[in-house]
Amino acid sequence: MNNNRAKWGSKLGFILAAAGSAVGLGNIWKFPGKAFEGGGGAFLLMYLLIVPLIGMPAMLSELAVGRASDSNVVDAFRKLGHKGYSWVGWVGWSVAFIITCYYSHVGGWVLRYVFSYATEAHAVYADPLGYFYAMLGYNAAADTTFFPWAAIGFAFLFMAICAFVIIRGVEGGIEKFNKVGMPALLVILLILFVRAATLPGAGDGLRYMLSLDLRKVTPQTFLIALSQAFYSLSLGMAIMITYGSYLSHEENIEKNTFFVCTMDTLVAVVAGFIIIPAVFATLGPDGVGKGGGFAFVSLAGVFEHMAGGVFFGLLFYLLLLFAALTSTVSLIEGIVAFLIERLYWKRTPTTIAVCVLMFCIGCLYTCSQAAFPIKGIWFDFANGVTFPAFCDAMEFLTDRVMIPLCALGCCVFVGWAWKPESAIAEVERCGDKFRFVKAYSFLIKFVAPAAIIVILCVSLFTGTTLS
Ligand code: PHE
After folding, report:
1. Residue 49 domain-assigned?
2. Pocket (CB within 6 angstroms of ligand 1)
3. Under a CB-based contact definition with an 8 Å cutoff, are residues 338 and 77 in contact?
4. Is the pLDDT assigned to residue 466 strictly greater than 70?
């Protein structure tokens, strides 16, 4: 055992950090839009089945691999005696790297909106779409483009905050930061929920989220829910392997997994119950869109038409900011931990170098949104070779290929190479019995890999993004 590796300072510290990683933009920004598209209740039902049946076994496996190997993502597989699976770690490490490049930029936009609501909410209200485009370097009225200073400047600030937390280390930085950020996030979530539920007309949205439209229970909706669950639980990016490796042997992995998954799902569902009813109440069902435009553009209409809108708008973007910060921190830690251990680099310069590099690549992401026609290259069997915008190509690469591949690698590794028995032994190392031995073995060997293979095939053969 490597005694030099950092460990979490307390039980709560780990739980909050893991939940902090899981609860991110995916929960608050992506989930509500998908739940709406997926028919409200139908999507919710599928999601609530997928999390315990596929998400939980997958998370438990990643945490067990991390703790058993006591190692970073790339070396974990070798340390457990299966060098042939190191590629899974490499994919996980790379996907964390690529995602951080753009996740941190979107985090910067969120930071921008915190300032916007604090200082010039009227400007956002006056022209929500124009304001959003202006941040990204596009003047819609004159149809001209310019360098997106606002987006890039705030992304830089966002990255600097994350780097600062990482430099302080696991216990002094990540753990302390999450101990403040996560409770703050929960309090804000609750306040917003009460506000949204009491808006006149919110009942329609609530009813939509609770109604079960069986026509919407389709394979497509199922796959969207499945990819969303993976993304939301921070699986397939080897984050949970890194975080698991900082976990002491007395901790009960089963209970921790249960808690983190429940918390993540709860936040996603509550976010759905905030945003959908609020949009229904103020803009009607047509106001619900998805993607970036949804969080940044449609919601302006919601806050404009609500009593105390500026205040609640500010709270909303603060919520999004905390969620994005704690997730980005977890991504960067996974990247930095590997470099420190493998190359014997020092934490501070490594963090700075990596963050600067990711920030620069992220600039291409932001610039290709609207300001400049920077293209990437893509291939799928349905459309052949295409040249989508650089920002889209980045997301295709991670969402359609790399995340499912890494998640599949982890499941197959635990199910067939390292064997579920080893994971179970690792879980029971704390002295408590693992209660779901049979179910877990079955799910991790057959159900989870099969589901992920379907996602991969659909992405590559039909050219659609499911996450
Ligand atoms: N789970 C995060 C979200 O919901 C995203 C994320 C994935 C963060 C993987 C870290 C690692 O937004």
Report:
1. yes
2. 21-22, 24-27, 231-232, 234, 237, 239, 327, 330-331
3. no
4. no
Split into its structural domains, the chain has a count of 1
Inside any domain, residue 467: no
At 137, the amino acid letter reads: G
Measured CA to CA, the distance from residue 405 to residue 93 in angstroms comes to: 12
Written as six digits, the tokens of 384 are 């052949």
- C-alpha 5 to ligand 1 mean position (Å): 24
**Distance (Å, rounded) from C-alpha 21 to C-alpha 73?**
16
Name which residue sits closest to atom 6 of ligand 1, judged by CA: 234
Q: Which pLDDT belongs to residue 294?
A: 67
Test site for ligand 1: of 27, 174, 231, most ligand atoms within 8 A of the Cβ: 231
Lowest mean pLDDT across 59-68, 176-185, 355-364: 176-185
Which one, of 442, 347, 440, 86, lies nearest residue 241 by Cα? 86
What CATH number is associated with residue 280? 1.10.4160
Q: Whose CA is nearest to atom 7 of ligand 1?
A: 234
pLDDT in tens, 15-42: 888 999 999 999 988 898 888 888 889 9
Gap from CA of 284 to ligand 1 centroid (Å) = 30
If phi > 0 it is left, if psi is from -120 to 50 it is alpha, else beta; for residue 64 that is alpha
Q: Which two tokens stand for residue 240?
A: 């949970």
Domain for residue 387, yes or no? yes
| Residue-wise pLDDT tens digits, 226-263 | 889 999 999 988 789 999 999 999 999 999 999 999 99
Which residues form the domain of 417?
11-462
| 106 Cα: distance to centroid of ligand 1 (angstroms) | 13
What mean pLDDT do residues 128-151 have? 89
Listed in sequence order, the residues at least 6 apart from 89 whose beta carbon sits closer than 8 Å to its beta carbon are 72, 73, 74, 75, 76, 77, 238, 241
Name the helix (H) or strand (E) containing 160. Answer: helix 149-167
Provide the token pair at 270: 């509550």
> Which atom of ligand 1 is least distant from the CA of 239?
11
Q: Look-up: residue for tokens 């739980």?
A: 15
Let me know if residue 30 belongs to a domain: yes
